[in-house]
Amino acid sequence: MKEKETLNAYKERLERFLSDLPMAGAPDKLREAMRYSLLNGGKRLRGCLLLAACELGGGDAEQALPFAAAMEMIHAYSLIHDDLPAMDNDTMRRGKPTNHVVFGEALAILAGDALLTHAVEIMASSRHPRAFAALGEIIRAAGIGGMLAGQTLDVTNEGAEPDIALVRDIHRGKTAAMLTAPLTAGLILAGAESERVEAGRKYGQHLGMAFQIVDDLLDVEGDPALMGKTLGKDIEAGKLTWPACVGMEQARLDAQEHIRQAVDALAPFGEKAGFLRALALSTLHREQ
Ligand code: GRG
């Protein structure tokens, strides 16, 4: 199918770019630990979304590659730190031992820090005329009002009573922010008008909420082999999840509703948004 081919083409370009990153100046051990988590087979959803948004806005995906790579580097950093014993204490990620299991905690912390700072360095080195605005979208999403806010609410509310407003804030920050930034940054790089950037933002926010609700459902009923990580950990850790608040059936309906709203948000782009439409719909049936 056409959308799958488009996704694979974006993914291949991004994998090549990431694999060729020189990471100049990094000591060998640090480069090894960074590359271990960066090049170990993620879906590349955030990077591909950025390339797709850029092309949807009429921009050149080639020039957007450093920003797509930065999305994946920041995502990889967050996964390394999230897996640490002080956070989720996970030993498997993407079907392989987690970074700290292989390299030790100190190097895992440094590899995460390095991926985050190097992502900023790569974006700041871009000569794209709208680099600064795109960098701002991405760093704000990863920052204290975005992913870091969600993660903080997540780890400080383990064992709390189910509270849907709190879970909404956690999911918005932890997951939806980093699925929204690729849309807004990609459209900004393309020079899209602000109404279109905001339509992209709305799509990303709804896609992100659905993505995390489905993630919560998969933690209960997914296949660990397909997911490449230990499942059932949310309940074990007393995490606040969407199904814990509304039940499995309602959670499925809520994910569907978010995808409906994500697809609706694409209306200003008309037929050209076929790829993003298909990607949103596929989120509901994902198994990994
Ligand atoms: C430690 C600052 C800090 C943040 C951690 C990303 C994150 C925030 C936590 C990881 C745990 C989790 C369930 C996060 C929600 C986002 C999510 C579903 C991440 C997994 O993303 P995928 O499925 O992963 O896109 P791949 O491996 O395909 O890249």
Total beta strands: 2
The whole-number mean of residue pLDDT values reads 96
Each distinct ligand: geranylgeranyl diphosphate
CATH top level assignment: Mainly Alpha
Sketch the topology as an H/E string, one letter per element: HHHHEEHHHHHHHHHHH
- Strand line-up in the sheet with most strands: 1-2
Q: What helical percentage do the residues reach?
A: over 70%
CA-atom Rg in angstroms: 18 Å
- Tally of separate domains: 1
CATH architecture title: Orthogonal Bundle
Low-confidence stretches: none
How would you sum up this structure, described in words?
The protein is mainly alpha-helical and about 290 residues long. It has one domain: Orthogonal Bundle (Farnesyl Diphosphate Synthase). Helices cover about 70% and strands about 0% of the residues. It has 15 helices and two strands. A two-stranded antiparallel ribbon has the order 1-2. Strand 1 and strand 2 form a beta hairpin. Helix 7 runs antiparallel to helix 9 and helix 9 crosses helix 10. It is globular. The protein starts with a helix and ends in a 5-residue tail after the last helix. The mean pLDDT is about 95. Bound molecules: geranylgeranyl diphosphate. The site of geranylgeranyl diphosphate has 16 residues, from helix 4, helix 8, helix 9 and helix 10.
Please name the defining characteristics of this protein:
288 residues; mainly alpha; Farnesyl Diphosphate Synthase; 15 helices; binds geranylgeranyl diphosphate
